[in-house]
Amino acid sequence: MQINLRDDLKVRLAERAAENGFPSIEAYVESLLRADAGDDQVISDADMEQLLLQRMDSGPGVELTPAFVEQFKQRRD
């Protein structure tokens, strides 16, 4: 698929892509389309960083051991 964009829009999209940790406009726009289509696997680097910082401040953590990872996987199934 090809989309022709005005130069001013390309500049703004390139800035947004960089701000959100995407390597290109194409990767940024693809993530937007995936999110709009309901693909829950898409999260920007900026959103991930914010989420991790919030979680760090939310209380005591847990040790990430192989046993913990296995228990976590089982709870998700």
Task: List its salient traits.
77 residues, elongated, mainly alpha
If you had to describe this structure to a student in words, what would you say it looks like?
This protein is mainly alpha-helical and 77 residues long. It has a domain at 1-45. It is built from 4 helices and no strands. It has helices at 7-19, 25-36, 45-56, 66-76. Helix 1 (7-19) packs across helix 2. The longest helix is centred in the N-terminal third of the chain and has 13 residues, at 7-19. The radius of gyration is 17 Å and the shape is elongated. The model has no long low-confidence stretch (mean pLDDT 83).
Tell me how many strands there are: 0
**Quick one: overall form?**
elongated
Number of helices: 4
Q: What order do the SSEs take from the amino end to the carboxyl end, as H and E?
A: HHHH
Helicity level, as a percent range?
55-70%
Strand share of the residues? under 5%
Structural class: mainly alpha
Low-pLDDT residue spans? none
Distance between the termini: 36 Å
What would the average pLDDT be, to the nearest integer?
83
Largest sheet: none
- Over the alpha carbons, how many angstroms does the gyration radius reach? 17 Å
Please summarize what this structure is.
62% of the residues lie in helices and 0% in strands.
